[in-house]
Acyl-activating enzyme 16
Amino acid sequence: MNPISTVSASASVNQMATFFLAPNYVLGSSSDYGHTLQFRSNNNSRSGELFHRKWHGSRGGISVSRGFRVLCQFKTEEKQIRRHSPFLERVLLDDSDASESDKWKAVPDIWRSSAAKYGDLVALVDPFHDPPSSITYKQLEQEILDFAEGMRVVGVKPDEKIALFADNSCRWLVADQGIMATGAINVVRGSRSSVEELLQIYNHSDSVALAVDSPELFNRISEEFCSKAMKFIVLLWGEKSSLKNEGNVPIFDYKEILDLGRESRKSLLDSDDKQQSDTYEVIKSDDVATLVYTSGTSGNPKGVMLTHRNLLHQIKNLWDAVPCVGGDKFLSMLPPWHCYERACEYFAFTCGVEQFYTSVRKVKDDLRKYQPTYIISVPLVYESLYSGIQKQISSASTVRKLIALTFIRISMAYMEFKRIYEVHLL
């Protein structure tokens, strides 16, 4: 990247800022904190103010299209509040040697423990997106930290609501945990909901920005959403070139958020005065972590506030029912904003489980392919699988039918004796 301009502040304040032009965004660095920067575009499709945020002696940026100019205004302001997970980002605290009792005050804290215990084990396998992904626990922790810092760079503040309208994938998990790690509150829903329902959830929750699954979903909702006052949009999958009706809202793709976060984290960790540039606060267990909306079958969906303590209770207690160990395989198929699936996923990652993403259409093939130790689902899916198996058995030859039924009876007897044995151990 090459510097495109160097701007000095007023004579009364001796500060300097430098801007760099990358293919898709402007990256800036400032010699001091407490400035306000304002980016403007002279491109007709994105006229007016694009980006307006306080500067913190580190780096940040804005996604831009071609044909733009930068106008920079500085004024010294008060420090920003930087809220973070106390164990995940404990390097930012004075007490970097947090004791065991200080762990897991917020949901994102689990990633520091999991990365330390299971670092090089594969955490996620997502074969159905482009590009296919296989991520270790160490890589997952770093990606969550980068995404969280990238969200701070583009202006996310503690307690703000960020709508996360996307389906099950590794990037959903990173976005979910990255938003939580900033002290913001994610508002979750899947892509199959109607435009009216998504708009109602966005408005009712007072969301200020949107993370969206794909260009297809964005193009379906853009007419209603891009006219709203919105800080920015994050595209989790796909190319921005596929988007229509972008309006005046800044749009970042997933990689841009990670790049901004990585640059800012590096600058922050290299800085000698990171404690002076911001006011640091830790996320508390009773802070709201997420808003989950009901199905809306009896009216408009209703928002349910879940705190970090709510989710951590599930994470800490599910082991009594599901004794996972490192290397077990977990097949994930329910919508990730489904509370049952979500809590089980968080729990599984604290045990070093390898999670594979699938869908209702692919689950039968993936059961054979991955042979998972655990699968979390709803009764309807199990009934469908059972009916399919029974249909195959009934249409088989007598010998095959006898063999299949014999092994089923042996399996059922084994599970019954295992249950009795485990009860006696309690």
